Amino acid sequence: MSTSVIEPGTRLAGRYRLEERISDSGGSSLWKAIDEILARAVAVRTFDPEFPRIAEAVTSARSASRLNDPRLTQVFDADDSGESAYIVSEWVAGEPLEGMLAKAPLEPGRAATLLYEASEAISAAHAAGLSHLCLTPRDLVWTTGGTVKILGVATDAVLCDRESDDAAAEDVRGLGRMLYAALTAHWPGDEEGSALPAAPASDGVPHAPRQVQAGISHAIDAIVCRCLGIGSGEPLASPADLAKALRGVPRTPLPLFAGLGNAPPANPRQTPPRRPAPPPQAATQQQHRRPAPEPAAASHVPPPRTRAQQHAAPPPPPSTSTRTTPAHSHGGPKRPANRALIGVAAAALTVIVGLGAWALSGPGGDDKPKGGGATDNAQTSAPPKPTVAKLTPQGIFQAERPAGPGHGDGTIGKNLPSVIDGRPSGDWETQSYYDADFGRLSKGLGVLLDMGKPVKVANVKIYAPVSGGVLQVRVGDSKSPTDLKRVGEQTPNGGEVTVAANPQVSGRYVLVWFTKLPGGPFKGRLGEVAVYGAAG
User: Which one of 2, 14, 33, 223 counts the least CB within 10 Å of its CB?
Assistant: First the structure.
């Protein structure tokens, strides 16, 4: 069965039902499909029988399936023994870096954090003997679950027929180009790698990021230049070296959802001709776009405006004290009769207001304030804002939601009291699991704080000495996790994160648990949990 006759509804291996063709190029097609056995969305790549590297692609996918870093797309299945070869991998929903940058550059601290996560993920792949070789802004996705995902490790190189004698250096250049793009919203690589505007260059060498976009520090500018061979700095040799370098620059925690905050655009005087950029593809699989589409003709679209420009406030209305001229007037002085009429109207209005006040305060006005004094509404103070203070838990318990009957782990963590002892050095941790989903044994695990009585929770500050995964906060009056109200989620960043309750929520119990585990190894850790709010 060739790719050309595979249609929506086709089942592969008796379980993968193809639903929507996402892309079709280079002898292979990418589909959104449903794994009918596990009832989940997956990405399926099928191949035309004429594709010359089917066996190599399947072999590379099987190698990638052994990777356990949650920031790398997981490969579930790969087979070329039947009539149709296929590769089944995780369906990634979110916004690709290219989509974010179609609006404006990222704030430098967030760009550094995003590429730090990507560098660590590619470093994990290199440690397992695999590489990417084709990194572009389309391969980095900020998922709807608030995590970084790198698409196409090992398999994209085969699909693109790409090889390298120094895979580490090639992937450092790819990561450096992505960081350059994140900082400037310009692409310093080959035209087919991205639809972003081309980076300005001299003699084929891109200008340094600080020459293109204001507000970039010398430190992060130097890192990009070392990745791309700009200037005389010592080149970075591997993704691990890049991750180490990015650890030394200021980084901003990433938000939970796709659509990162953007910095102002580049100086219009330095903006080169722009290639049309596609609209952001939020909540869409953005995998494997090989080969690249035909290059579009260059256009002179002006640079994206800043948020302030796009939503500029209208001019203020004229002051009430300013004399205005009616549309039919020629600016001459008003006649005295007009002034007399205005005086009569003002006197009439005064009489009406006086009669109304007498009616409200006269006979029958039983609502008059005691003491006979009139109430001055202008001096009535607004209700005071509730005071937010750190609340003291009265107890702490382990919390788990097993995946089903017979699942779960009765000893999910240890060192519980250290989570509420007031020090971030606590060492509550779970056991290690096979994957970020707790080896399919649980759907969440963490700690449940008993506040002793119902309280109003404003925010919860969590110190977690891990990066990646998802931490969720719930509040309510039940010890059962599923009966508590979900307040919010955050991705741990190796330090303190805050989950705010807006509006405040009330309850006796506060649950802080991992719904996705950080990788390397897959283990949850908590140092301190602090609840802020007021007595209920």
Answer: 14
Looking at the domain covering 389-535, what would its CATH class be? mainly beta
In CATH, what class is 10-90?
Answer: alpha beta
Whole-prediction pTM value? 0.54
User: 19 exposed, middle or buried (CB, 10 Å; 0-12, 13-18, 19+)?
Assistant: middle
Q: Which residues contact 225 (CB under 8 A, 6 or more apart)?
A: 208, 231, 233
- Radius of gyration of the chain from its Cα atoms, rounded to whole angstroms: 31
Residues in CB range of 259: below 8 A, 6 or more apart:
95, 100, 142, 280, 282
How far is Cα 5 from Cα 110, in angstroms, rounded to an integer?
44
> Could you tell me if 530 and 505 are in contact, meaning their C-beta atoms sit under 8 angstroms apart?
no
Cα–chain-centroid distance for residue 535? 33
- Output phi, psi for 74, to 5 deg: -80, 135
As a whole number of angstroms, the distance between CA 33 and CA 528 comes to 41
| Residue owning tokens 């003699």 | 203
Quick one: CA dihedral 69, 76, 523, 464, positive or negative? positive
Bridge partners of residue 499, in order along the sequence: 460
Q: Using one digit for the tens of pLDDT, what is the confidence trace for 431-469?
A: 878 788 887 888 899 999 999 999 999 999 999 988 899
In tens, the pLDDT along 110-152 reads 999 999 999 999 999 999 999 999 999 999 999 988 889 999 9
Domains in the chain: boundaries: 10-90, 94-248, 389-535
Distance, in Å, from the CA atom of 69 to the CA atom of 149, rounded to the nearest integer, reads 10
- Separation between Cα atoms, residue 498 and residue 491, nearest integer Å: 10
Q: What's the gap between Cα 302 and its chain centre?
A: 27
Task: Tell the burial category of 268 from Cβ atoms under 10 Å away from its Cβ (0-12, 13-18, 19+).
Answer: exposed
C-alpha dihedral sign at 503, 504, 509, 512: positive
Please tell me the CATH code under which domain 94-248 is placed.
Answer: 1.10.510.10
